[in-house]
Amino acid sequence: MTTQTPGAAVPAADPTDHDHGLLDAVVVPDRVGVEGLEERWAPAWDAAQLHAFDRTAPRSEVFSIDTPPPTASGSLHIGHVFSYTHTDVVARFQRARGKHVFYPMGWDDNGLPTERRVQNYYGVRCDPSLPYEGDDFAPPHHGGATSVKAADQVPVSRRTFVRLCEQLTAEDEKQFEALWRHLGLSVDWNHQYQTIGSTARAVAQTTFLRNLARGEAYQAEAPGLWDVTFQTAVAQAELEARDYPGHYHSLAFHGTDGGDVVIETTRPELLGACVALIAHPDDERYQHLFGTTVTTPVFGVEVPVLAHPSAEADKGSGIAMCCTFGDLTDVQWWRELDLPTRSIVQRDGRITREVPEWITAEAGREAFAELLGKTTFSARTAVVDALRASGDLIGEPTATQRKANFFEKGDKPLEIVTSRQWYIRNGGREVPGGRDLRAELLARGDELDFHPDFMRVRYRNWVGGLNGDWLISRQRFFGVPIPVWYPVDEDGETRWDAPIVPEEAQLPIDPSSDVPAGYTAEQRGAAGGFVGDTDVMDTWATSSLTPQIAGGWLHDADLFERVFPMDVRPQGQDIIRTWLFSTVVRSHLEHDALPWRHAAISGWILDPDRKKMSKSKGNVVTPMDLLVEHGSDAVRYWAASARLGTDAAFEVGQMKIGRRLAIKVLNASKFALTAASGEGSAVVLDPAAVTEAIDRALLADLATVVEQATAAFEGFDHARALETTETFFWTFCDDYLELVKDRAYGRGPTGADGEPEPLTPEQIASARAALALALDVLLRLFAPFLPFATAEVWSWWRGGSVHSAPWPTTDALRAASAGSPGGASEGLVATAGAALGALRKVKSEAKVSQRTPLLSARILASAVAAEQVAAVEADLRAAGKVTGPLEVEVGEPVGGDGEAVAVVVAAHELGEAPPKR
């Protein structure tokens, strides 16, 4: 059905609330549905540049979002849809509130995930020692292989490997963008960036050089966590503690007095790296040994017995061997007790290829020679065999589960090796000069508004528990290079302590191919020449600068002034310690300010077993099929139903509810517009036309909904805004529409003679105006959540887009609901709906059609409800098909379960059912 009627101008009484004119004719499709709405509206929004940021807007009128750049390696999963929808509903709300929303999209290209994907996709691995193969190099695979073993991967030069990384991420980003558009993200696609792009590299390198100049960045040769699989250093923030099977071994160290000291360890392979035995200073068992020495079994190295308060007297034998390095406790003891460094585990995870100089006994050197080049697993077996042979193994090993540190993307326990790395100060260690950086960063956390607020403690706990500065250098290939070179002296020794830095105007640079000022390319690696730093920055070192990269810092000062500091950072709870904290660190050090005012923290998506969904667990769901099957509005509804900070189950059932809601919005709107336009009449958005009590009561209730939804959005509680709006909407459909549809169509209640009772023009106009006003507001309340369905309905009767219409205010609604005799009674719509439900219930129980007339009915109601029922008698009689008297008696009605209710039908007389049509 298509209805076309003349339109009317929007009344001047409330121009800010209705700045989109009505169409000359209301055009409602014969059939409505959610299918195909994404394909219709997403391109239309893009063509109209509906979400483009206004570069002329002053900062006070801007709402800027530090959009999370998804990792461009593989595919998006349903968790992305979940959290990005949370951001989008806020963006749409702020835009409707009159803000100019800066909503960019970035792509996190660099880092280990991209390298791993490229290795598997193309069947290659990087070998930086190889020369460039040329631009026409063709990799052996293009994603067709199900699995390419590391041994079968073709080695390629770093330049070729980086080119393949760039090529694959560009393809992935196109797919991601298509999905985001289908989901209805109101991103400004004119503002995109890549964390490996030239702008991002310039920002990251500039910030690093400024950190270096201020003493906030430094390099050190120090023990650090190392992943032997990926051959790279790992930061504290990237750790995962996991259970790992092992065995306790009891070993006998030999004292100078001939007695033995027994220790227990799960890592006997590190015996050759032992530098001391440590016990608690109050442990009476070992106080007589403090200050003496013992000799290690098998290798015969003399080591001291020392005291330290962190030793655990109740763990094992209460005394432990300190090795360089078995775990982070060893590092602490090594540093605080000024112990020597005797590392034996190399970067490849194998034992050193040379017998250490500190092992001097011939038998010890022979024993260690058996370990050279072995994996730690094989070395453990060899050491245990040697201990058993020497009689220094006490009993047999006993199985246990130990906690081991893993790289979050790795599958082998981390080792601690000594290497030269770059760090940025983050409060984890004492800062030269007495600056209390940890306290400063804790204060920044107090300034930041967390949503929900309980997420604040995660930030404080992380900062308070830091035990080292931020390690930012990585031994990888696809990333932002550390922008320094080092001089090589005349003896061919590299001067690591005298880095050569470029001018900021030269950035971005790649030290592996660019040449520092004053040198020539031929001097690379030569005595008297230079070498470039081969490391790249940790991916978080770039991602921590997303406000600066997206905001135009360094290259677009005008934009930066309009968007920075940004208003909100939306992100997941699991990366508070990494992304959120590191961004606060960079902004604090560079700008002496927070990077944003608010942090909106999403929860996790849980699978049916209540486990977090993640790619590593293999339990993720690819979202495009869901978007196609249920519709984007339905999936958005599921996502938006979850509050920030709350884990949500993956529920297709909730998506089905969302789909039904979107369809109901279309169908209810179709009815409301058809009824509101009447026969040859215009849709009127005039509060003065609303005169009937129930119409005014409806708009009074809606005004309260607007206030509650607005307050919820302002408090970053989008789920509450949706819940409030949806609850009212179903009351609007189930109660109000049923009650007023006859009056809206100009039909009064049917009398005993079968003829409709006359209605005044004012009664008809009141229903139509209330319908139009309510629909106008409801569409805008739903627009952030159901952008496609609301855009469709809006186009049937309004100019422009619902997504550029202002957020509803209560002025027109309050004006429409005031001034009636007795005012608009609170709860009137609910009472009228309950009365209609009671009348329909008697027909259902009698198993007759709802079109069956009630020749008479007597309603028992509470005093308040009785007055309200009387106020809607005509609409109630029409909707309930009451052709005779409808009496209302004041009493104390009870329901079938004995509970007090507002109304019940105490008596009735059914007429004859009409013939079936």
Distance between the termini: 20 Å
Mean pLDDT: 89
- Computed Rg: 36 Å
The helix count comes to: 25
- The computed structural class is alpha/beta
- The residue fraction in helices comes out at 25-40%
User: Roughly what fraction of the amino acids lie in strands?
Assistant: 15-25%
Number of strands: 29
Low-confidence sequence ranges: 1-19, 820-824
Query: What overall form do the CA principal axes indicate?
Result: elongated
Q: The biggest beta sheet, please?
A: 7 strands, mixed
How would you describe this structure to a colleague?
- This protein is of the alpha/beta class.
- It is 37% helix and 16% strand.
- It is built from 25 helices and 29 strands.
- Strands 9, 10, 11, 12, 13, 14 and 15 form a seven-stranded mixed sheet that branches.
- Helix 15 crosses helix 16 (632-640).
- It is elongated.
- The model is unreliable at 1-19 and 820-824 (pLDDT under 50).
